[in-house]
Design a protein that fits this description.
The protein is mostly helical. Helix content is 62%, strand content 0%. It is built from 13 helices and no strands. Helix 1 (2-23) packs parallel to helix 8. The protein is globular. It starts with a helix and ends with a helix.
Length: 258
């Protein structure tokens, strides 16, 4: 049931964002889309296989275990179920924000995260392009946070579905009216907001770390409204990795070790 919910949300959001990108793209692609999609979706398939062969649905399983044992901060304070679920969701989103900051701050973790930033264009498949090593480390971190909080199992299911859907949406090549975008980003992250994070300019890359809620970037001072050259002028990717012929699937999988 848990897997079916996540898969259903994923497919629905993927289809919706893909159609919106096709009908109203924010930027014209600079790379061959079919080639990029083959690479990004291949990495995603490898990520799924890596999870299935190792930790699997560890976060959900950890939530079931913590529930059976009565473990976790939220269980100790005996909060009402609705309030506890909301608090767990918000704190899990904070945990993902902090994880993202760590992957930029640590040279070792950045080696893994560079694979995500090496995409020379940005669309919904960029939100699926993470090195398998990063995916497994993220799952371990998320599982630990779930146990520490004592998050309800269905809160974890909802959070992971939203997390995956938000990754597709915020990386989407979507044209959203400026006023609408500004209104949305008061609470939630938007594609224009996250596109700044994928700029080749270091000061812009080290900003806008949020995935779903934008409050963390505001609270911790990492919010940057727009790239210096504007949304149409921002250069996507890594300044040191601009040759598409060196960004194929084998090269990306080996990137952290070079």
């Amino acid at each position: 049931m848990e897997a079916a919910v996540r898969l259903g949300v994923f497919l629905a959001v993927f289809a919706a964002v893909a159609i919106a990108e096709w009908r109203a793209p924010r930027r014209l692609p600079t790379m061959d889309r079919a080639a990029r999609w083959r690479i990004n979706l291949s990495i995603f398939v490898l990520d799924v296989i890596a999870q299935r062969l190792t930790l699997g649905a560890a976060a959900y399983g950890a939530a079931l275990w913590a529930d059976a044992q009565g473990w976790g901060l939220l269980r100790q304070i005996d909060a009402p179920p609705l309030l506890a679920g909301l608090a767990a969701f918000v704190l899990l989103d904070l945990a993902i924000y902090l994880q993202h900051v760590a992957f930029h701050a640590s040279p070792t973790l950045w080696r893994l995260h560079r694979v995500h930033h090496a995409d020379l264009d940005m669309d919904l498949t960029t939100g699926l392009r993470f090195h398998p090593g990063e995916i497994l480390l993220s799952l371990m971190w998320k599982t630990g946070v779930v146990v520490a909080l004592g998050a309800d199992p269905w809160t974890v299911v909802v959070f992971e579905a939203v997390l995956n859907g938000a990754a597709l949406y915020t990386h989407g090549n979507l044209r959203i009216p400026v006023r609408v975008d500004r209104a949305i980003r008061r609470v939630f992250c938007t594609p224009d907001m996250h596109r700044v994070h994928h700029s080749t300019v270091p000061v812009e890359t080290n900003s806008n770390y949020g995935n779903f809620l934008s409050v963390w970037d505001r609270l911790f001072g990492t919010m940057r409204t727009n790239p210096a050259r504007g949304q149409d002028g921002v250069e996507i990717g890594l300044a040191e990795a601009r040759d598409p012929t060196r960004l194929g699937l084998p090269a990306l999988l080996l990137m952290p070790f070079r």
